[in-house]
Design goal:
Elements: E1 20-24, H1 29-37, H2 42-46, E2 56-59, H3 61-66, H4 72-80, H5 84-101, H6 105-108, E3 117-119, E4 130-139, E5 159-166, E6 179-184, E7 197-198, E8 201-202, E9 207-213, E10 219-224, E11 231-233, E12 243-252, H7 265-278
Parallel strand pairs: 3-4
Antiparallel strand pairs: 1-10, 2-4, 4-12, 5-10, 5-12, 6-9, 6-11, 7-8
């Protein structure tokens, strides 16, 4: 079973504004069509919970392994994207970028090539150096006014990488749901680690859009996490369609960076007002990834 990095080269890594790849036709067309045809239903992914509107739900690697309803091809594909071979492919593609971003990474942890991979929620750091999860993920239909599932943000500081394999139904013609990649505005460069954040979301006025990755079938986006790795999702219009993808995460036993507290109550009020103004209607967000 192929994984999403089987065909990717280290030369595919884009370093600006942070190390990432955008790969079209990431997996074979045959496998992609089979995964789409056998994608679990919204009820199966939500496990019977209230769908809400444009909310995030996941089936983790453990959920998939334990499931009696997820198809065998999905079980095999999920396993292929969290095993040691997947991690080895990840290092082959991203090692140089990681060490460029974090020159002391191997001194702080251990050589990347010596990491033993485990599965999040099935293993722990007593028997693994990195815990990987490959999740079947959805954003539920937008039943209320158009909104974004997540504004500009960075991921948790214990995540080494995040990946998204978009698996879009050909019947889905919904506008929005694209991934945006940002960088800090120049005037915020010296202060970005000072804490312009609320729950990992950054004030919209602090960032500039660098590129948009369209939500389309069989596109892989993957990046190394850092305080620079700003990303968000564009507003989805009202729709009865579910946004479907696979999410990949790799957690390490330590933090890559620190997000300091907000500097002042005045600044805190300003940020909160700005977030409310720019991201009104954003749904509650559950889990990692986009």
């Amino acid at each position: 079973m192929e994984n999403v990095l089987s065909k990717v080269r280290k030369e595919d890594v884009i370093m600006d504004p942070f190390p990432h790849i955008v790969i079209k036709n990431a997996i074979s067309d045959e496998l992609c069509q089979q995964l789409l045809a056998e994608f679990p239903s919204t009820d199966q992914v939500t496990k019977g919970q209230d769908w809400g509107s444009n909310k995030r739900f996941n089936l983790s690697s453990k959920d998939v392994a334990d499931s009696t309803v997820v198809s065998q091809v999905w079980k095999d594909f999920i396993e292929a994207n969290h095993n040691q071979q997947f991690y080895n492919d990840f290092v082959r593609v991203f090692k140089d970028a990681i060490l460029s971003l974090y020159p002391n990474f191997e001194q702080q942890f251990k050589p990347l090539g010596e990491f033993k991979s485990g599965v999040r929620k099935m293993d722990d750091f007593s028997n693994a150096d990195i815990l990987i999860d490959s999740l079947i993920s959805i954003n539920t239909p937008v039943a209320t006014k158009p909104n974004s599932v997540r504004a500009g943000h960075v991921d948790a500081p214990d995540k080494l990488f995040t990946g998204l394999l978009y698996l879009r139904s050909p019947e889905d013609n919904t506008q929005g749901g694209n991934l945006e990649i940002y960088r800090y505005k120049k005037r915020y460069q010296q202060n970005k680690a000072q804490g312009h954040w609320i729950n990992a979301e950054i004030e919209s006025g602090c960032i500039d859009l660098v590129k948009t990755v369209t939500y389309e079938n069989n596109v892989l986006v993957m990046f190394i996490n850092s305080l620079e790795s700003l990303h968000g999702v564009t507003v989805r219009e009202k729709t009865d369609r579910t946004r479907t993808f696979m999410n990949l995460v790799g957690e390490i036993n330590g933090k890559l960076y620190t997000m300091k507290p907000l500097q002042s109550s005045r600044f805190r009020r300003k940020v909160r007002a700005s977030i409310k103004r720019f991201t009104s209607g954003i749904s509650a967000y559950a889990g990692g990834g986009d």
